[in-house]
Amino acid sequence: MLATKSQTIPRFWWPKRDQISDLGQEHKDQIHSIFVKQGITDGIKTWEQCEPIVTEVFKLSKYFAAPIFHKMKVFYDIIDRSSISKRDAMMAPTPVPITEMMVIGWASRKIQPEDPTLSFYSVVKKDHNDWIEKEDFDIFLHAILMTHPGLDFLLETQDRKDTGRIHLQSPLLSLGEFDDMKMIRDYFSYEHFYVIYCTFWELDSDHDFLLDKDDLLKYDGHALSRRTVDRIFSEVTWKFTSAVPGKMGYEDFIHFLLNDQDQITDRSIEFWFNIFDLDADGVVRDHELKYFYEEQVQRMECLNYETIAFHDVLCQLHDMIGPRVTGEFRLADFKRKRKFAGSFFSIFTSLNKFMAFENRDPFQAKQEQMENPNCTAWHRWCADQYLRLAMEEGEDMDEGGVRRDVGLIAFMSQGWIRCGLKKPEKPGMSSAIFCQELMDSKGGRAAVRAPCAAKFARHFVTSSCDLGAMPCNL
């Protein structure tokens, strides 16, 4: 029987695009003009000479200049093909100059100046592949590390480790416009990376870049229950990439951390739903919730906290989520009420978040959300942790033996961009002096040593305000 009402299904497939055509005469003339302008007669010898061609003709990021120059050398067998993955050789001059015709020959069938995204895809992938693999980005990321002024300090670090669909063309172009890495936040934030890496490093007691169950139990001040950690290490939600049985690698930890601190996303909701769905029947029922809650009660009793009956908790959460079928929580129910899904899961998995939920001030939370609507739970957590790490590493002794909060000064004077908002300006005053005056006016070091230190910093890095605007109760 035919349906009485037709439904339009959005298009989900497009035919494969035609092969990239040769460079047009206009772009060949541009390449010739760049050779003439630089006074190059025998050919390009360094990647710096290649940069104008990459940015002006190819319409790609200037940080593609060194990798493209490296790929040209390999393409013409100037260096061995196996060296395509040897990043240290990428910045070296070519022993055989690359002529104008060689540049045009390499760019043909690879570069489409009218479509930079297609050019990006063709340049990054291997010539024999029709897809981009993870390792294809290696030399491009290394080029950013070697040439971006905002990452100079990383060049002296000896313990560096290489570690859905996204669009990288635009962010890479934006990198060329800013020397401060914190200005580009589309897919990467150095501050977020710093927080993630330091959090992992603190848990990894033997520093083998692998976490076992005991390591993860230390996360967030031993907040996670043993049963939760056991379920995570059962790999029921996703298979670990560490390839070591019973061990979680750095990438696996990032996957867990994002799911734990950003609990309104589909990825996070699906992650925690699978943790709770013990029998894998697509429904979370009361006996499955009770399995996790029993350990929470035991932990609260050990700490002399007042416990709450499971039935009372279940009634409260039932009203919060409002499942379609009474007593049966399905994935669709959590996605429909995603705002409360994180609180639901945290009550059974994290003692810290459970206690924070019980003692929450709904009016304060609502006010903070209204003041900073673009600041997600993930950004707030990263800001809090970055402040903590900055204070721990920046505390020092001055000449008089008095401790000074260098870390907080550096954090607030250099990292004002938060959630898309800018630092408050005060004419004739540097950021560092502004921060110091701010601290002195509100009680100096005592204010930032207090438990409200994170709120103190967040108020000024997410708001446009002056010295007098700081809440007096901080």
From TrEMBL:
Keywords: Metal-binding. This is B'' subunit. InterPro entries: EF-hand-dom_pair (IPR011992), EF-hand_13 (IPR041534), EF_hand_dom (IPR002048). It comes from Durusdinium trenchii. Residues 264-299 form the EF-hand domain.
